[in-house]
Amino acid sequence: MATILICGIAVNALIVAGSSLTNYNFITFGSKTCPHCKNLHDFFSKNYQGRYCFFWVEDSDGSRLFYELYTVEINHGLSQGYAYAVPQTLVLRDGAPIAVVIGEVTDVGFWNQLVSSDVTGEIPIYLGSNKHNVVLPNESLAKLLSDLEKAVQTQTSQTPQPNNNASLSLIGLGLVIVGIAALVLYVVKRVTS
Residue 127: beta bridge partners? Predict the structure, then answer.
């Protein structure tokens, strides 16, 4: 028992110190055909831009990672019906798991309260905004967190970078507009004087 606890603490310390997961508060698994998943994606996009990562279960990484979470939940007593439901959001604080929320919750206060919770040895599961009686031991998510770390890095590295030529084009366009405006003002002033 002591060995498992020490391993769990060591894994969390590793994840907290310099992990790309520390940039995120919400890792969500959803289906592209699920209206609740789409609503939650839009909600996070609007309210937590840059602090959430969405994995679609139709994609290979999303499917594999969701199955890992599903397996952990089943092994700790959550019914198959709930464990297989989407959307599911893993809530993180400084890269450490705080809670799992199953379902669409679009209440900023609820999510802010979860994110400000303390990191403990147990991760409660919420069905919507109601806490369920099943909790996950922190160490049970060690492999999932490690795999999420790799997947998030891959997903971020594939995100298109801003096009610097587009920025220069906009600056050039702005200068042309200012030049034309100055020329028009000069001509109007010359004609009226």
Answer: 102, 130
